[in-house]
From TrEMBL:
Name of the featured protein: Leukocyte receptor cluster member 4
Organism taxonomic ancestry: Eukaryota, Metazoa, Chordata, Craniata, Vertebrata
Organism this protein belongs to: Neovison vison
Membrane spanning stretches: 6-22, 34-64, 76-94
Membrane topology type: Multi-pass membrane protein
Domain of life the protein comes from: Eukaryota
Single GO term (MF): lysophospholipid acyltransferase activity
Location in or out of the cell: Endoplasmic reticulum membrane
Signal peptide: none
One Gene Ontology cellular component: endoplasmic reticulum membrane
Reaction(s) catalysed by this chain's protein: (5Z,8Z,11Z,14Z)-eicosatetraenoyl-CoA + 1-hexadecanoyl-sn-glycero-3-phosphocholine = 1-hexadecanoyl-2-(5Z,8Z,11Z,14Z-eicosatetraenoyl)-sn-glycero-3-phosphocholine + CoA; a 1-acyl-sn-glycero-3-phospho-(1D-myo-inositol) + (5Z,8Z,11Z,14Z)-eicosatetraenoyl-CoA = a 1-acyl-2-(5Z,8Z,11Z,14Z-eicosatetraenoyl)-sn-glycero-3-phospho-(1D-myo-inositol) + CoA; a 1-acyl-sn-glycero-3-phospho-(1D-myo-inositol) + an acyl-CoA = a 1,2-diacyl-sn-glycero-3-phospho-(1D-myo-inositol) + CoA; 1-octadecanoyl-sn-glycero-3-phospho-(1D-myo-inositol) + (5Z,8Z,11Z,14Z)-eicosatetraenoyl-CoA = 1-octadecanoyl-2-(5Z,8Z,11Z,14Z-eicosatetraenoyl)-sn-glycero-3-phospho-(1D-myo-inositol) + CoA
Family under the similarity heading: Belongs to the membrane-bound acyltransferase family.
UniProt GO BP: lipid modification; phosphatidylinositol biosynthetic process
Keyword entries, A-Z: Acyltransferase, Endoplasmic reticulum, Membrane, Receptor, Transferase, Transmembrane, Transmembrane helix
Amino acid sequence: MSPEEWTYLVVLLISIPIGFLFKKAGPGLKRWGAAAVGLGLTLFTCGPHTLHSLVTILGTWALIQAQPCSCHALALAWTFSYLLFFRALSLLGLPTPTPFTNAVQLLLTLKLVSLASEVQDLHLAQRKEMASGFSKGPSLGLLPDVPSLMETLSYSYCYVGIMTGPFFRYRTYLDWLGG
């Protein structure tokens, strides 16, 4: 087996028992513990290239905050543009990221575009509610509110699916935290 395959095996073997620890944990420990484990695994496997994931997250969060009514299209353009830049690093004479960094970037792109879509759906539902003049309460499947920077970071770096999938929406993540 190659060194990358050994590293991947170690990551998988670490992730399995951690899942059992978080199964009974409360929402706070799940949120911050899962994010810390995910960030730790990302730093372990990607090293300084972890910065690419952070830039992608911060850019998407800024777009969500600035333009919630059209953030889905903006996040899609931003994350795929950054992914194109990321894939062209070696052509630009910059250090080539590890295969692990590539996996993290691909899954992060899915997560962040999905998050922007969910925020946009929330914003559109709120606008319809204001236009109709009455509040009908929280709609099923919608986010309770727009995630903060820390909530966005914790979702993005959650160790579940950080390199291998499965991909899950932010609403599913919130259900996992509360369940």
